[in-house]
Amino acid sequence: MIISGGSNIGRVRSSNQDSFVTEKISDSVGFIVVCDGMGGANGGNIASEVATNIISEHIKSAYRENMSSNSMRYLLMSAVIAANAEIYDRAQEDDDLLGMGTTVVAAIVVDKMAHIVHVGDSRAYIVSSNNIEQITRDHSVIQSMIENGEITEQEAKNHPNRNVITRALGVRDKVDVDYNEIVLSEDDILLICTDGLSNFVEDKKITKIIKKHKISEYPDVLIDTANNNGGGDNITVVTLSVKE
Q1: CA within 20 to 30 Å of 233's CA: 17, 48, 94, 164, which one?
Q2: Residues 102-144: tens digit of each pLDDT
């Protein structure tokens, strides 16, 4: 298993409010947590850091070998719910942090099985040599409009509400969390990113980069591509391959 990651401020923002953590628990088990914070000068930074720290510590303390799928789902769900509660409580105690929140995608990969939870519009993809598939569903105004037939995916790319999300950690005292399981083949790459990548690099281009470069190079090349396309947001990219 190989995990590579990187984060960049981009070319427009004054600070990087993204945060990520990766760790290999063993040769065949690893986890990824990626967050994109929002809210005020410091709120986004705090929300994303709190989320990555709480979720990663929860995973490390609670994970055991041979856990069932239901147990993995509960582990990840409870980690995200704990992070939501901590961010929400901090915001209630400090007016300067009121309204802060963060997206999250958290994944545990055991052998070739990926267990993924998410809230918001940060994404998980599976990229093969000739194909890319978005595993997560954006919790966003734009995604709802697309699904309701109000706009096309092409129109969504330049829509003024394209960055408005409908779910985030820490904004309310409770949060709805989505869970997915997917089996990875040896040639698959699990790619987790914030919208600083997905809004500035087309899916087809991501696939071409994955096909052309080594896994250790993926995050840097993808981040450079997003910056070359405008770099209008913080950019975080993490990739995982089950094949050494």
Answers
A1: 94
A2: 999 999 999 999 999 999 999 999 998 789 999 999 887 777 7
Cβ–Cβ under 8 Å, residues 33 and 119: no
As a whole number of angstroms, the distance between CA 1 and CA 189 comes to 11
Q: Parse the chain into domains and list their residue ranges.
A: 2-234
Residue type, 78: S
Which is more confidently placed, 215 or 154? 215
Beta carbons within 8 Å of 187's beta carbon, 6+ residues apart:
128, 129, 243
Containing 177, the helix (H) or strand (E) segment is none
pTM above 0.70, yes or no: yes
Of the candidates 170, 164, 53, 56, the one whose C-alpha atom is nearest the C-alpha of residue 102 is 170
What is the torsional sign of CA 111, 20, 46, 160? negative
**Three-class SS state of 108:** strand
Sign of torsion over alpha carbons 80, 124, 142, 41? positive
111 HSE (CA, 13 A, CB side)? 5
Angstrom distance (rounded) from CA 53 to CA 48: 9
Specify the pLDDT at position 51: 98
What string of DSSP letters covers 18-76? EEEEEEEEETTEEEEEEEEEESHHHHHHHHHHHHHHHHHHHHHHH--TT--HHHHHHHH
- Give the CATH number of domain 2-234: 3.60.40.10
